[in-house]
Specification:
This protein is mostly helical. The protein has four helices and no strands. The model has no long low-confidence stretch (mean pLDDT 86).
Length: 76
């Protein structure tokens, strides 16, 4: 977020990237993903990404259990 603000303030992107130790393509990926957002939106997005990660994990665990049960029933 700070990198995007500094870029909008007029700092050259290559200088900013060198200072932060990131590549120029990384900066532009951040700008595409987070451009136009304020801090509250970014934190909400990160919360939703974490919740999505947990839900995917839960789904995969339940799917694995269902596959194991199906294999067990198929052998009977």
């Amino acid at each position: 977020m700070e990198a995007l603000k500094r870029s909008e303030a007029g700092l050259a992107v290559p200088d900013l990237c060198r200072e932060l130790g990131i590549s120029v393509p990384t900066f532009y990926k951040w700008r595409a993903k987070f451009g136009g957002m304020d801090a509250s939106l970014i934190s909400r997005m990160k919360e939703l990404e974490e919740e999505n990660r947990r839900l995917k994990k839960m789904y995969l665990e339940e799917r694995l259990k269902a596959e194991i049960a199906a294999e067990y029933l198929a052998k009977k």
